[in-house]
């Protein structure tokens, strides 16, 4: 299974980026990272005046070449990062002006990787993803969430913690 991981975070070496890198290290042959900071993606526009940005080439690559997509974001105020929200909003392009491409999302597995300061994120965070994937008829494989509250300030330095969470996620999501 080829997995596209789309990372939306403002900190290249932050906890979410570290968790994604750790995940990729465990499954390097299957995973490819797409860091949204490397792309120029404009916000959704009802007049579609944003078609010269990087969204369409990026999503086309993902849809045409991968079996699953994992969206990775820190939890910011109960929601995904601004970069991730813009990316997700642009999926609307695939429902209006790029319908043939959008139809190819149907059946593609989709999941979430996230980090935050609370031990368990508020349900509204995951629901944004779950509802989006459900609307697009993408089987939801669940969320890998790790906290960095209290004693875990840098999740990358906690090998045992990561091993447990990543292996549990992979076992349930990709079984």
Automatic annotation (TrEMBL):
GO molecular function, one term: oxidoreductase activity
A Pfam short name: FMN_red
Keywords, comma-separated and alphabetical: Flavoprotein, FMN
Domain NADPH-dependent FMN reductase-like: 1-142
Keyword Flavoprotein (UniProt): yes
Protein known as: Multimeric flavodoxin WrbA
Source lineage: Bacteria, Pseudomonadati, Pseudomonadota, Gammaproteobacteria, Alteromonadales
């Amino acid at each position: 299974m080829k997995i596209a991981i789309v990372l939306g975070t403002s900190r290249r070496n932050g906890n979410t980026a570290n968790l994604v890198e750790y995940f990729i290290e465990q499954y390097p042959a299957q995973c490819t990272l797409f860091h949204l900071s490397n792309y120029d993606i404009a916000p959704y526009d009802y007049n579609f005046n944003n078609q010269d940005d990087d969204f369409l080439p990026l999503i086309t690559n993902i849809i045409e070449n991968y079996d699953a997509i994992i969206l990775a974001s820190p939890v910011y105020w109960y929601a995904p990062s601004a970069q991730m929200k813009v990316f997700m909003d642009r999926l609307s392009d695939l429902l209006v002006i790029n319908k043939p491409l959008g139809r190819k999302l149907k059946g593609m597995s989709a999941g979430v990787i996230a980090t935050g300061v609370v031990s368990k994120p508020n349900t509204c965070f995951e629901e944004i993803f779950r509802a989006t994937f459900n609307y697009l008829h993408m089987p939801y494989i669940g969320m890998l969430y790790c906290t960095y509250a209290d004693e875990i300030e840098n999740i990358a330095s906690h090998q045992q913690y990561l091993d447990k969470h990543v292996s549990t996620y992979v076992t349930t999501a990709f079984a």
